[in-house]
Amino acid sequence: MAKDRSRNGAGRAQRPSGAFLRSAAGAGALALAAVGVAACGSSGSSSAPPSTARHRGTPSTAATVTVETERSRYGTILATSSGMTLYRLSADTPTSSACNSACAAVWPPLTVTGRPTVGPGLDQSLVGTITRPNGTHQVTYNGHPLYTFSGDGAAGQVNGEGINSFGGVWDVLNRSGDPVTKPVPTPAPSTTAPSGYGSNYGGGY
Length: 205
What we know:
This protein is α+β, with helices and mostly antiparallel strands and 205 residues long. The protein has a domain at 66-180. Helices cover 33% and strands 20% of the residues. The strands form three sheets. Strands 3, 9, 10 and 11 form a four-stranded antiparallel beta sheet that branches. Strands 4, 6, 7 and 8 form a four-stranded antiparallel beta sheet that branches. A three-stranded mixed beta sheet has the order 2-1-5, with no helix packed on it.
């Protein structure tokens, strides 16, 4: 009987071992599940940067440039939408620019990535673009590639007019896209005496 009790006791001692194994197996499954969730989360976070990079690499909406007009001492002339005077270089052709490198630093070309437009009073059919050596597209008007001048600091200034540099002469352009080389004449002050002044002056003599 003692031997039977001993065997029965030993049998009872083995049952907790089976329960422990089942518990350990359950814990292991939970651990594996947690690892799987973490792996999915890690995979999702690692895929985000490439997606973001693709969005950053997508070109934005093409920029546009509008050729406007501005009043100056040369009359109404072509200008940017912010009023900065636009110039042409006499050495240019309708299809190419003679101003590059150091010249372009002093006379920045008016470039665009989309379709250029014009403001009121200008002819849309006269505006176009040429491709510069660096691949950018420069705006033209009436066959003249357009530039601003680094020496102009405010709207309406024409400090570059008539300068002879970088192989040609720089001029402002009127509404028709023709060079303007002379300022608008300033009306001479009137020398006519006020009405009645002469008669009253000489009336007593």
